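Revision sheet: C-alpha cells.
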Amino acid sequence: GVWAKIEPLGGSVDVEAQQIQTCSQEYRVWIRYRTGLTPWMQIQWGSRRLVITGPIEDMQHRFMLIHATENTSKTV
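Predicted:
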C-alpha cells in the first residue's frame, strides 16, 4: 500500500427523471511521490474507488497532490 492523506472537499447530489440518485464527492489526496499517474486512473481506498480528475501536482519529488472524485448511484 501507499501512504495517503485524503481530505473530502465537498459533493453534490442529483436526482434524475427515473428516480436514480447520483452522488459525487470530491477529494484532495496527498501521497508520496511516484511516477506514472495520469488522470482517469483510479485510487482504491477501502471499498471506495476514487477517479483521478487532475491536476496531479508534484511537490519537489517528495509528495504529490491529486484531485479525485468518487461517484455513486442508487435507485430512490
